TrEMBL record:
Site label Important for beta-aspartyl-AMP intermediate formation, positions: E343
A molecular function (GO) term: ATP binding
EC number: 6.3.5.4
A Pfam family it matches: GATase_7
Binding of L-glutamine, residues: D98
Keywords, alphabetical: Amino-acid biosynthesis, Asparagine biosynthesis, ATP-binding, Glutamine amidotransferase, Ligase, Nucleotide-binding
Protein name: Asparagine synthetase [glutamine-hydrolyzing]
Catalytically driven reaction(s): L-aspartate + L-glutamine + ATP + H2O = L-asparagine + L-glutamate + AMP + diphosphate + H(+)
Domain Glutamine amidotransferase type-2: 2-185
Gene3D superfamilies: Glutamine Phosphoribosylpyrophosphate, subunit 1, domain 1 (3.60.20.10), HUPs (3.40.50.620)
Pathway given in the UniProt record: Amino-acid biosynthesis; L-asparagine biosynthesis; L-asparagine from L-aspartate (L-Gln route): step 1/1
Amino acid sequence: MCGILAVLGCSDDSRAKRVRVLELSRRLKHRGPDWSGLHQHGDCFLAHQRLAIVDPASGDQPLFNEDKSVIVTVNGEIYNHEELRRQLPNHQFRTGSDCDVIAHLYEEHGEDFVDMLDGIFSFVLLDTRDNSFIVARDAIGVTSLYIGWGLDGSVWISSEMKGLNDDCEHFECFPPGHLYSSKERGFRRWYNPPWFSEAIPSAPYDPLALRRAFEQAVIKRLMTDVPFGVLLSGGLDSSLVASITSRYLANTKAAEQWGSKLHSFCVGLEGSPDLKAAKEVADYLGTVHHEFHFTVQDGIDAIEDVIYHIETYDVTTIRASTPMFLMSRKIKSLGVKWVITGEGSDEIFGGYLYFHKAPNKEEFHRETCRKIKALHQYDCLRANKSTFAWGLEARVPFLDKAFIDAAMNIDPEYKMIKRDEGRIEKWILRRAFDDEEHPYLPKHILYRQKEQFSDGVGYSWIDGLKAHAAKHVTDRMMLNAGNIYPHNTPITKEAYYYRMIFERFFPQNSARLTVPGGASVACSTAKAVEWDAAWSGNLDPSGRAALGVHISAYDKQNNLANKGVEIEKIIPMDAAPLGVTIQG
């Protein structure tokens, strides 16, 4: 993995331009502290900052074909690279890097090879024979990527917005699952799974098939030549990832190099739900567990750095990114270079608590489709940039292409939450790993209620953020919010506070347009807010906003360490979504 930066067709091959590209590339150095490289061909520049994970000795970039006529700079992990190498018997590979297959696949298949790649990636490929280029991003957008256009006719590509925002007339997020071709001067979608059309699937639920698909997704991600660990919050998703990793690690090449003892990591405020649950899971699995504590003030002090690195003003993302940002620094200091984590499950299985109110299976399924399509703007962005801020890579098995296909082909009737039948959120995933003979997890962990990461690290974290923002944003400022920020106007003081910081780092109109907006309750899309009329008055992304659903929902009795701020002033109690309760 690495940070990539490319400037293509800039009509300027001067030394000054090369120096500028190098300067901008250094803005991405946190993503790849192990090696820096820059290759120039005429008026095209390909730069990278490498985090060496597979073949750290010889896998430096850019990568080439045999005669160096095809040049590639790539940020990614190609999990099926050994299989692809076997399909290219007439090609000679210069390195052992998993990404070395890309240039050779292009030689064999032209621009139509991207769907052959099983992994996460963003890459720029330059064909010097006709000076054409292609750019592609992985299916879901696990890796971050931006594209921009200069007034001189140049096309800019960067892993992060800060690599191009000062030099482009216009820039935007590079869409996941797409390829940009210089020959066509536009995008085309290469990733077209059946679920993308949002047609309602009808396949029956097979718990063992779902289990096998996820186990394979985890196992293939244990490809490494460096130390790694697992992020363990104690919730269902990360606990399953840790359990499967622990179960199968001994038979992998990684275990031969680094041993079969798995290291796990958790972060939270003192006494938070995640710390307690993670410790219990770690003890059950026998991992070497590392527990990191932070205070509300630690998090508040890091907010500006977090916004600079994750490049968003979205409230939910900033709340959850801050603990992850603090934890990643600690993990990297221990010599670990990548972690495996549990993002994506809630989008696939309807795990957010607002799914309790889905009116029917059709709406349930369409909402999961909408959530997966938007992941690159939320959880993928958080997981990628919060970790890479410290040169740490995150791998996400729930977003494996084959696993998504398997899970999204199941009749959504099986995913529906039915309290009278004992089916809570993500029931089909829990049931798939409910093995009496060889249990993966203790029952009460396997059936633990969903905690959003920003909640699970400690409920007073969000309350403290709101109180801090209220000290910096006045009522008068909020009255003028629509005039100051007409696009995605902040409706809370917390959102206004984050927006001020973001605009200071990224003042361009293109920058503010990269951040999504719209109404949300407990992380829903704007469309799902329509499921309950009462939700329109209760728009907060915390899982605790799902009043009557979350067992620690916002109320007077459960107001934890709120520093004297009444929850009713933040979220009116009479606006609570009604009629949803947890049984038992």
